[in-house]
Design goal:
The structure holds 2 protein chains of 2 kinds. Chain A is an all-beta fold. Chain A is 0% helix and 40% strand. Chain A contains no helices and 9 strands. Chain A has a 4-stranded antiparallel sheet with strand order 5-6-7-8, with no helix packed on it. In chain A, strands 1-9-4 form a 3-stranded antiparallel sheet, with no helix packed on it. Classes of the chains: A mainly beta, B mainly beta.
Chain lengths: 147, 72
């Protein structure tokens, strides 16, 4: 009988220092993005989201219904406010970074925890970054799961 | 000397069970920047990139990929 291989989670968080005035899809000079992973002469463009301006993206069907699937999610993000002033979900201490309906969700807590929930494994605390998560600093987060 | 891609980097690798993406309906899978169950999705801040791969990428490979992703 074939045994099930444990799922492996890999989380990488890259904290980079880049102070820039947020603006909607606006390029910024290279000299303020020294550690944000941008190569060559690329300028940083980003989407500024307010809590009432979400974005829903279509993702090609990934798996047979109800079956787990290998995945990797990569995201570059920065917080608009300090941890103590995060825009929180109602009756909660978290602000979600991204989510899949009824499936994987990853979030930041007011305590500086990067965490994720999955269907069968809620409140998985991945990293405590209380001293690093600051407003207007770029972070790169990769979450990967293997079945 | 640390390269830019190594600077400030934190890593965690551990083994858990039942940590996965799954799909319950036949509808096209959606991803939300923020929380799908909240009006407006609730995220406040900047987003530069959001990439979903249908495969597992090991930590070392992910670090190499990071610097070669296109910007938007």
């Amino acid at each position: 009988m074939k045994s099930r291989t444990p799922l492996l989670i890999t989380v990488i968080l890259l904290a980079v220092l880049a102070s820039a005035t947020p603006s909607k899809l606006t390029p910024f000079p290279k000299n303020v993005t020294q550690f944000d992973g941008v190569i060559g002469d690329e300028a940083v463009r980003f989407l500024k989201l307010k809590r009432n301006q979400g974005v829903r993206l279509s993702v090609a069907s990934m798996t047979p219904i109800g079956k787990p699937v290998d995945f990797t999610v990569m995201i570059w993000f920065k917080l608009q406010r300090s941890l103590s002033n995060l825009s929180l979900k109602k009756n909660s201490d978290v602000m979600h970074l991204f989510s899949f309906p009824n499936s994987l969700k990853c979030y930041v807590t007011i305590g500086g925890i990067i965490g994720c929930d999955s269907e069968n494994l809620p409140r998985l605390r991945l990293l405590n970054l209380q001293d690093l998560l600051k407003a207007d600093h770029w972070f790169h987060l990769t979450v990967s799961g293997q079945s | 000397m640390l390269s830019d891609s190594e600077r400030g980097q934190l890593r965690l690798s551990e083994v858990k069970s039942d940590f996965c993406v799954s799909q319950k309906t036949t509808d096209e899978l959606k991803a939300c920047l923020g929380d799908c169950t909240t009006s407006g999705f609730g995220f406040e801040g900047g987003l530069r990139e959001f990439i979903v791969l249908k495969e597992y990428v090991a930590a070392e490979s992910a670090l190499k990929i990071k610097n070669y992703l296109p910007q938007w």
